[in-house]
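Protocol step 4 of 5: obtain the predicted structure for the target chain.
Materials: sequence only (see below). No template structures provided, no constraints applied. The aim of this step is simply to have a reference model before the mutagenesis design in step 5. Sequence pasted as it appears in the construct record:
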Amino acid sequence: MTGATAAARITARAAALACLAMALYHLWVIVPPLDFISPKLREMFPGPPADYIFRSIHLLFALVVTFLLWRRSSLTEDEAAMRGVSIEANGRLPWPDLALLAAAAAPLVYVLWNYDYFVNRIIYIDDLKPLDMAMAALLVLVLLEATRRVLGWALPATAIVFLAYALLIARVEPMRLLDQLYMSTEGIFGQTLAVSATYVMIFVVFGAFMERTGTGQLFMDFALSLTGHTAGGPGKVSVVSSSLFGTISGSAVANVMVDGPITIPLMKRAGFQPHFAAAVEAVASTGGQIMPPIMGAAAFVMAEFMGVGYGQVIVWAILPAILYYVACFAAVHFEARRSGLHGVPRSELPRLGTTLRERGHLFLPVATILAVMWLGYSAPLAALASTLACFPVAALRASTRGAVTFANVVGALIDGAKNTVAVALACACAGIIIGVITLTGLGITFTQLVVGLSQNMLFPALLLTMIAGIILGMGMPTTPAYIIMTSLLVPALIKLGVIKPAAHMFAFYFAILSAITPPVALAVYASSSLAKSDLWKTGWAAMRVGAAGFIAPFMFVYQPTILMIGEWPEIAWTAVTATFGILLLAASLSGWWIAAATLWQRVVLLAGALALIWPGLWTDLAGFGAGALVAAAQWSDRRAARAAA
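Step 4 output (structure tokens):
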């Protein structure tokens, strides 16, 4: 073995050990002090440490893993050119990365070593020592570099712009800025990093455990057996499997890369155009971030910002998520009927009974999350219980028992830590932006600007927020995009009369939908590469398939009953009218209702959809009437054609 190979192997093992330690530490501290266990056991599980310590350790793990895994030598030539770093072919840890690793650890170890000093000093009153300022500046620089390596330039560049605003325009003293960012819990160590440490880590580990036990294959076989034989069946399989996989994964691109290699070739084989197949997969996978019970990381941030339980966010999200997938399913169905496409022969599909008998028990960990939360326990504890249940549940049947190995358990822990790093860095870097906004009062200024530009009218303010959310989401993950919108734009919506849950959900949705909105649409990029389709055609098709996602946020601003807020009869009626309106919208865009739609019929269907989406009894009746009118006209045309034949 050469020295280079040995060094590369040592680096890989160090990275794996760091990931394993990160996952095990969070599993250990996530257990709260429980009254029903013995005092001796209670001492073994003291619960999460103090905020400063917990968040510092979480960020320390994330930075160490970053510089071990996202090192210069681990990048391909294309990645290195894109990120502006040099590479070494031998896989060793380069000296600059080793220096950065040490530089990342120093400020966080300094926090842990001087914890009493940090919590007892008075922010803005006690001056910083030279060493405090040096450590603060070092952490900011290292964090920006780590975020750039993992997520690209967009988020760190945004943070740099905010830092420049604070120093050059708002004229904040450098000492006060570093005090805010490093020496308090209003900056890097703020609520966003707390969400990553407390919620995101354990749910990502749970998703990794589910994948390792074969749940992804269960979702795929379940969707194939349900819808694979129907018109355009492979497209519907993509919708169903992506919605199921979205319950354990909050990443649109990850969903595409898991489902896409199976569903996109199936759709192309069934007769769908490559760009449409890629669009369906991108839209269906993007919906995973709004699909309960496990939504994207931004949903946990929303719960923290609003001071509500995560279960409440799930309640708000259920109906909009259903509408999103109903629209996607309908778009596939209408496109298949318009193009005369058929499903996959039943002989080539798994049987539903066999699938449930062999793998159906793997649904139990997802059900465990809901059950534990329903009993009143916290979301992290529910996720922990479900994580611990994954491998025992897999061991129940011989068909899944092969996944129950020590190597698989260790691999799941390592995967969970790796997948958390991007979220942890995004939350910490977003903490820089929030710290600047809080210190300079920029949020109030921006609220006044939005209210002024919209001239105190709600709809223009909603359009401005929508555009800002899509633009922000184009360059950065959903979580920091939502955080920035919450700090700058959501207060303006609330000031204009939008209820708080609807304002936050509005920002949340449009931070997500950037994944399918050209020109920078990450989910579309991923699915288009799998389908080998034209990027722009795929992007526009994705917007058409996911049109309901762009309309739903306006619906729950003007009609909060879609968020399950209100009386149950009103909520039920809203669900019916919204669902029918979404179907009419999909029919209008696809050009098919009962049969192929003419131009005037598509216009009537669109008008009916908008009428049903707008709240009011008369508009609802008009919408139902529009759908019935077009259906009657198409049935009449069909009878006339049969008579003529």
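Step 4 remarks: The radius of gyration is 26 Å. Residues 3-184 form one domain.
Proceed to step 5.
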